Amino acid sequence: MPAMSLFPHTDSAALTERAPAKVNLTLRVLGRREDGYHELSSVVAFAGTGDRLSLIPGEALSLTLDGPGADSLEGDDDNLVLRAARALADRVPGLALGRFHLIKRLPVAAGLGGGSSDAAAALRLLARANGLAFDDPRLHEAAIATGSDVPACFYGRACLMQGRGEDITPLVLPRFGAVLVNPRVPVSTAEVFRLLAIPPGMRRGEVASPPSGRDDVLDWLRAEPNDLEPPARALAPVLNEVESALEATTGALLVRMSGSGATMFALYADCRAAAHAAKMVSAVHPHWWVKSTVLG
Ligand code: C5P
Questions:
Q1: Is residue 1 part of a domain?
Q2: 279 given a catalytic annotation
Q3: If you measure from the C-alpha of residue 281 to the centroid of ligand 1, how many angstroms do you get, rounded to a whole number?
Q4: 37, 83, 112, 226: which to mutate for ligand 1, most atoms within 8 A of CB?
Q5: In the listed set 170, 196, 230, which residue is the last one of a domain according to the structure?
Q6: What's the domain range around 103?
Q7: What pLDDT does residue 214 have?
Q8: Which residue owns the Cα nearest ligand 1 atom 11?
Q9: Could you read off the pLDDT of 109-151 as tens digits, one per residue?
Q10: What is this structure's pTM?
Q11: What is the CATH number of the domain that holds 69?
Q12: Ligand 1 atom at minimum distance from 116 CA
C-alpha cells in the first residue's frame, strides 16, 4: 500500500498555480449588448498577492478550502473552480480531473476577480495535467463560459480586456507599487451593472489604446475612469471613506475602484511607498482588508 501524506497538497504529485488579484486600472462601459452583457474596455493588471490553487490529478472532481477567506465559500457546490473544471470537461472528451485545494486569501465579491482568478488557475492546472497547450481554443471557451473576467485571468498578465471580457490584447505596463483596500462590504456585480440602466443594444463610444511610457500611462489612466464607480458608491457609500483614506497617504499617484468594487486601490512609485501607505491606512482602519503589493 502506498504511503499516505498528512498534507496531501504538499505532495509531489500536486500541481500548483498562483491565482493573483486582478485590478481594473480603468473600466469603461461602452454599451450593452442584446444578450444583456455590457461591452467593456478595461486595462487590467495583476497583483503580486492572491490565492493559491493546487490539483492532485486523476481522481474524481472535488474541492477543499483553506485560508482566511475559506469560510465565506464553504458549502458552495458551484464554486468557480468546479464550474471551470466542468466547463472544460464538457469540451475535452476524457479530460482527467482531480482534487483541487484552494488557499483563499482574497476577499470575495470585492472587484478583485478572486473567484475568476481561481477558475483561471483551475484551467491552467487542468491544461498542465492533461497536456493541453495554453492556446487550445477549448480553454478560452471554457474560460468565457465560466465568467466574463476568466479569460483575462487565464492570461494572467497586464492586458486590455474588451467585448464582454473575451477579447484580450497583451499590454506592456510599467510596474507600480499599489495598496488594495476592501472595507469588507460585499458588492454584487450584477446589481452595479443594473444601476447603470443602459438599454440593450445601446453603444456609447470608443476608447483609445493606452500608451506605454510611465508618465504617459499615468496621464492616460487618470483620464480614463472606472464607469462602475458611481453606481457602486450608491450601493456602498463607505467607498467615499476608502477613497479619502487612500488619498491621504503619502505619494498616492492615482486612487480608484477596481471592477464593480468595493475594493479601491492606489498606485505609488514603488513598493516601499506602498508599504508605508498600507501601514497608514491600517492604523486608522484596523477592520478593513489592506494589502500592499506590486502591480504589473
Ligand atoms: O460573467 P459574470 O458571471 O462574471 O458576470 C456577472 C454579472 O455581471 C453578469 O450577470 C452581468 O449582470 C454583469 N456583467 C455585465 N457585462 C459584463 C460582465 C458582467 O453586464 N461584460
A1: no
A2: no
A3: 31
A4: 37
A5: 170
A6: 7-170
A7: 75
A8: 190
A9: 899 999 999 999 999 999 999 999 999 999 999 999 999 999 9
A10: 0.94
A11: 3.30.230.10
A12: 4
Active-site option among 51, 118, 149, 227: 149
Express each pLDDT in 194-238 by its tens digit. Answer: 999 999 888 887 777 777 777 789 999 999 999 999 999 999 999
- Let me know if 215 is a catalytic residue: no
pLDDT digits (tens, 9 = 90+) for 17-56: 999 999 999 999 999 999 999 999 999 999 999 999 999 9
Co-location of 42 and 163 in the same domain: yes
Q: Residue holding cell 471557451?
A: 141
Pocket test for ligand 1, best of 22, 32, 38 (most atoms within 8 A of CB): 38
Shared-domain flag, residues 219 and 235: yes
Number of domains in the chain: 2
Domain match, 159 and 209 both: no
- Binding site membership of 1 for ligand 1 (Cβ less than 6 Å): no
Report the atom number in ligand 1 closest to the C-alpha of 147. Answer: 1
- In short, whether 189's Cβ falls inside 6 Å of ligand 1 is yes
Cβ of 32 closer than 6 Å to ligand 1, yes or no, is no
Residue 147 CB less than 6 A away from ligand 1? yes
CA of 153 to the centre of ligand 1 (A): 15
Ligand 1, atom 20, lies closest to the CA of: 37
Indicate whether 203 belongs to any domain.
Answer: yes
Please report whether residue 79 resides in a domain. yes
Q: Is residue 26 part of a domain?
A: yes
